[in-house]
Amino acid sequence: MATTTKAKPKKVKSEPKKTPSAREAMTDEAVKKALKKLSGWAHKNDTLEKTFAFDSYLAGLAFATTVGTLAEGFDHHPDMVVKWRKVTVSFTTHDADSKVTATDFKVAEAIDALPYKPKG
Fold first, then answer.
1. Are the C-beta atoms of 105 and 96 separated by less than 8 Å?
2. Is 92:80 a contact under the CB 8 Å cutoff?
3. Which residues are CB-neighbours of 118 under 8 A, at least 6 positions away?
4. Is the separation of the CB atoms in 54 and 119 below 8 Å?
5. Which DSSP helix (H) or strand (E) runs through 87?
6. Residue 49: enclosing H or E segment and its boundaries?
7. How far is CA 35 from CA 30, 64, 84, in A?
8. Could you report the per-residue pLDDT of 78-116, keeping only the tens digit for each?
9. Measured distance CA(32)–CA(29) in Å, rounded
10. Helices 102-112 and 57-74 meet at what angle, rounded to 10?
11. Would 104 disulfide with which of 8, 62, 72, 91, CB 3.0-4.6 Å?
């Protein structure tokens, strides 16, 4: 006695929705909208930038080290300038022709959530 099996219908693969990658350059409009969610960050020369002030040089240095460690976790590293009682953090995404991306904003949000209390 022969058995027959029914053929399973082939699954049709639908095209995934095209959403912007976290590492694609954002439009100026999207950058302006995203900046409203951050305090003290600015969009300058295709970078996302903020300067943090501290009561001492060592507090700024500790902050910079923490930012570097946090950024490593995101695999997205800022440029930082450490000066006396000030640290300037700036992001741009090299993979996006050195423009600002959603990844820059994600890391900036994480930095703002750190428990450091910058000076006024």
1. no
2. no
3. 52, 53, 54, 63
4. yes
5. strand 86-91
6. strand 47-53
7. 9, 22, 27
8. 999 999 999 999 999 877 878 899 999 999 999 999 987
9. 5
10. 140
11. 91
What is the per-residue pLDDT across 13-53, written as a single tens digit (0 to 9) for each?
555 544 556 778 899 999 999 999 999 999 999 999 999 99
**Residues 93/103, Cβ–Cβ less than 8 Å:** yes
Which helix (DSSP H) or strand (DSSP E) does residue 28 occupy? helix 28-35
- Homologous superfamily of 42-112 in CATH? Transcriptional coactivator/pterin dehydratase (3.30.1360.20)
Residues composing the chain: 120
Does the pTM exceed 0.90? no
113's tokens: 């959530």
